[in-house]
Amino acid sequence: MPLFPHNPASGSVPLLNSACPWASSLDDLRALYTSPHTSAITVRTSTVEGFKEDVSQHQMTFFGPGGQNSANCYGYSPFTLATYISWVRQLLKEDLPRKLVIFSVTGSIEETTVMLSMLQAFADELDITFGVEFNASCPNFRGHPPPAYVDSELMQYFTLLAAKASPNLKVGMKLPPYTYDAQFDVVLAALHALSPASGEHPIAFLTATNTLGMGLVFGEQIEPIPSCKEAQGLKSDVFALPGPYGGLAGAAVHQISLG
Predict the structure, then answer these.
(1) Quick check: bond before 80 cis, omega within 30?
(2) Alpha carbon of 81 to those of 111, 119, 204, 249: distances in Å?
(3) 165, 236 in Cβ contact below 8 A?
(4) Taking the chain, what is the end-to-end CA distance rounded to the nearest angstrom?
(5) How far is Cα 59 from Cα 118, in angstroms, rounded to an integer?
(6) The whole model's pTM is what?
(7) What are φ and ψ of residue 52, in 5° steps?
(8) 173-207 exposure pattern, b = at least 16 Cβ within 10 A, e = fewer
């Protein structure tokens, strides 16, 4: 099963959301799943145990002309993968047009192995195909770079994903914005090393891109967006985010993401 139709209907563009805070709750997922504009949905990045979210620290903001740029210091979803599996099971029981669901996950090699096994069992139980995106690129954690920036770790995760790929579990990886050609070479070399002698590649897709880390936005640059309550959180007098650093998205990284 391809992630998207090879030949979408005339005038139709197969769209899906990114793994983001607006794909966190069951209500969020239902809104995305029932939207006439989505061909698939992506669940917010989850972990085995759930992320300890602190609204006083994990925030986002819009900035620049028209609020076309954003910065955030979010972590992962506070809900566990098991919770998302139960919610998706509930959604799929409803009388709705079938769409592909992509679970976004992250964790250590051991944790990711457990989560991939959970998703394989879920796909087998319902006899349908799911996608699973390993988020290797969130920049908002201190102390260690995202795995997608560490060559040896990137290969480890690609190898694990390839080993766990199956006809009803399509695996892929969410990449960061790369800024020089050697970083692309590492990804291409990893994919080449895992290429089968025949048949489709075990890595079904790449998500490009996550945010670009260590962005610094000043409070005076904030562009209020009244319709987005998440962007109206607590701000310091000087900086837009409490960190004060965060991952940049939107127009600020559009060209890098296309590259």
Answers:
(1) no
(2) 11, 9, 21, 25
(3) no
(4) 28
(5) 30
(6) 0.94
(7) -80, 95
(8) bbbbbbeeeebeebbeebbeebeeeeeeebbbbeb
Tens digit of each residue's pLDDT (9 = 90 or more) over 175-224: 999 999 999 999 999 999 999 999 999 999 999 999 999 999 999 999 98
Strand partners, 247: 72
User: What tokens does 49 get?
Assistant: 């145990």
Measured over all CA atoms, what is the biggest interatomic distance in the chain, rounded to whole angstroms? 59
CA dihedral of residues 202, 203, 204, 208 (deg, nearest 10): 180
Sign for the CA dihedral angle at 41, 45, 150, 239 comes to positive
What's the mean pLDDT in 54-65? 91
For residues 177 and 148, give the distance between their C-alpha atoms in angstroms, rounded to a whole number.
10
**Structure tokens given for 111:** 């944790």
- Tell me the three state secondary structure of residue 84: helix
Mean pLDDT, residues 92-110 taken together? 95
Amino acid sitting at position 162: A
